[in-house]
Amino acid sequence: MDAPTTAHLADVSAFDAAGHIARVRRDGYTIVEGILDASGIAAFRAGVAPYLGRWRGRNPFEGLNTERIYTLVARGKVFEDLAADPRILAVVGAFLKPQFLLSASHAIRIHPGEAAQSLHFDDSFYPFERPRPPLGMSVIGAVDAFTAENGATVVVPGSHVWGPAEVAAVRDGARPKMVAFEMPAGAAAVFVGTLIHGAGANASDAPRLGYTNQYCEPWARTQENWFLGIPRERVRAMSPTLQALLGYGLMPPFMGKVSGSHPIKALAPDWVPPIVRQERDER
Ligand SMILES: O=C(O)CCC(=O)C(=O)O
Q1: Hey, whose CA ends up nearest to atom 4 of ligand 1?
Q2: How many other CB atoms sit within 10 Å of the CB of residue 221?
Q3: Which atom of ligand 1 sits closest to the CA of residue 200?
Q4: By Cβ atoms counted within 10 A, which residue in 118, 177, 194, 231 is the most buried?
Q5: Which CATH superfamily is domain 17-249 in?
Q6: Is 191 helix (H, G, I), strand (E, B) or coil?
Q7: Residue 140 alpha carbon to ligand 1 centre in Å
Q8: Cβ(105)–Cβ(224) under 8 Å?
Q9: Which of 61, 114, 153, 223 to mutate to test the pocket of ligand 1 (most atoms within 8 A of CB)?
Q10: By percentage, how much of the chain surpasses pLDDT 90?
Q11: Which residue's alpha carbon is at the smallest distance from atom 7 of ligand 1?
């Protein structure tokens, strides 16, 4: 198996994880610059190019004038590196339990004329009352620079600690003070799953390309089903860190086991599911 790689990544030793974590606790989000450098941005663009231009969102939430490329993590090395970026994982890991999982990974290209997305919070589908600790963490990264005009994500700072009444007021149309994630290409915002946000309207004359990687507690169901969505041969070639993020690890003592064994065994080239092997051996 490959070791985790730092290709496309800047020097991580100088990364101020504590500062970012403190900002997330206070405001609900932080912005990390330089997650992708110029070569990473070029690799990202080349990696999504084959899939662009053929799809539009199916509802206003996906964005009727927005393209999304799902299961991005499995579409190339640059996307693997983004999902397992050690700086991102350092911030995310301060809020989720060890063995947390990647929950969703997709590119988002918002076309000119797209309306603003409805305000929401990303871990809302877990049925636990707010206020509460986040059950998920989200990253939204800029491949094109994000501006207020081209659809930069807008957030309500501090809304991560809100209770149900304030959240309901926003759903009913209240508009508290919002901030746009205006950030240069290559930067990424990291925020808690309880933070209220949405994609902005794109009033510019160019598309806005970005991506989201979302993580969840190791005991929670992931949004994307990686076991069905990513062939095992492809997972086998990924780093151990990413394999764990995709669910090929155990949450102690044994959550995620495969017929009583560690799920990493399922990546061996000659692996057959134990129930098939055992039935065969009986014959
Ligand atoms: O693309 C963005 O700026 C935000 C998208 C988002 O929040 C979502 O689709 O859940």
Answers
A1: 199
A2: 11
A3: 3
A4: 194
A5: q2cbj1_9rhob like domain (2.60.120.620)
A6: strand
A7: 7
A8: yes
A9: 153
A10: 94
A11: 198
